[in-house]
Amino acid sequence: MINKIRFLILIQFILIGCKTNDSKFNLPNIIIIYTDDLGYGDVSAYGKGTLNTPNIDKLANEGIRFNNGYSTSATCSPSRYGLLTGNYPWRKNGLRVITGGSLVIDTTEMTIPKLLKTKGYHTGIVGKWHLGLGSGDGVAGSGIINYNLNISPGPNQVGFDFSHIMADTQDRVPSVYIENGKVVNLDPNDPIEVNFFHQNKHDDYGLPTGLKNPEMTTMKWHHGHNGSIINGVPRIGYMKGGKNALWSDINMADHFLDKSIEYIKANKSRPFFLFYSLQQPHVPRTPHPRFEGYSGMGPRGDAIVEADWSIGELYKTLQNEDLLDNTFIIFSSDNGPVLNDGYYDDAVEKLGDHTPSGGLRGGKYSLFEAGTRVPFIAYWKGKIKPGVSNEIISQVDLFNSISVLVGAKYKSTDGNDFSQLLINNKGKGRDELIIEASTRTAYRKGNWVMIPPYNGPAVSENVNIELGNSLDFMLYNLKEDPSQKNNLSIIRKDKLKEMISSFVRIRGKNFSNIEDLILE
Ligand code: NG6
Ligand code: CA
Questions:
Q1: Ligand 2 centroid, distance to 371 Cα (angstroms)
Q2: Model confidence at 25, in pLDDT bands (50, 70, 90)?
């Protein structure tokens, strides 16, 4: 009898062993660590700026650091759309930064988490969402989302089994976390009301705003950001109620980290996908006081130090849970850097010699390189041979690459499979790429970049960033001129012509907002 029990226990062990073995070596866990507005020069491994990011550097130095890695847009919502669907965001008509708008990924669209689910993955997102919520009537910001009910569709309807998110941005109301469609800690007797355009209504409630009550703010607004005051920070939009549910800004990084760690621990026995979507260093920059002064660059630098620390803690969790050698990690940012994005927070004054854009021209919102060329790192302990790649790769390629990596058959319209490049640093990257900023597009082929003419200010006065608008075509050779200083469109007419015709092939003829543009 005892022998029989021993035998059964042995069989059980073998079966459990096989199961872990199977999931351990065939299907890796996948984590996308995604920062918000982190520039090409903000990661010290890129050797451009003066900030110190040791934990991100570890991923870069022991993984593959891509020097020509792109986000799909120079702002957040379109960029995240491109990342999750593998399709260029400019294909989605008019997709720009979302302010209280409805979900922009169609629930019938294929996404990275959805394709991973077909392979048995458990999928989760923790952090910033910013792809809209609810089906509403499509009028962004008109108060279409009822935060007091189950909020759907949202991340859970486009592939995430688990979601713990902030809806849009840290500077937009509602300042609450939403877990699987429900506002966390919401008291039904204190319902949430949100609107973005009706200040009068908010005034009728007698609630303070950044505009009327600057004396009540602890962070001063520079442009926009003069709506409801929450935790002393004036926000975009107006919010009433939901007092119990309000987040703590200074605890946000710890909060998202804790939720991510909980998620990993809860799902470690099966393949999982985690989209760890950090809010730093987007405004308002509210690092926990324990990081204050660390960077010497004020809250923006300190928020990056905090993000780097959080990534180190996540890494330690993977290490302690013995998951590192079976976890493929991608690190990147949703768009390029900005200093003053609407608050007086010393980002400009205390910058010193640091170069968030790493010497690239432009920044967030820009069609110049710094808008979308971002830190881009692939890491897989023991599997990836450390290296540096100058191949062109875009976040739009992650969909197809991940699909191939896990043996799924899904292919997006605009993505390429770069699984070999990401893991073995083998093969070529993209020949060409469409660059996007707030629905405007430009084109890169090899070392050449062509930016077509656009109406609009050359420089955004508010954020002091060159947007890439010009009434003339611009043509740059990034190899000789990485900072895009010399417009070669006149002396290289032949090249310009070639670039325009390749661009039109993908983008169509109506690519510029200048109506009488003559293409010859
Ligand atoms: C802009 C905000 C900016 C930031 C951005 C979204 C103003 C004047 N500016 O509208 O502060 O919130 O939207 O950034 O309100 S993103 O990284 O999420 O795209
Ligand atoms: Ca962003």
A1: 10
A2: very low
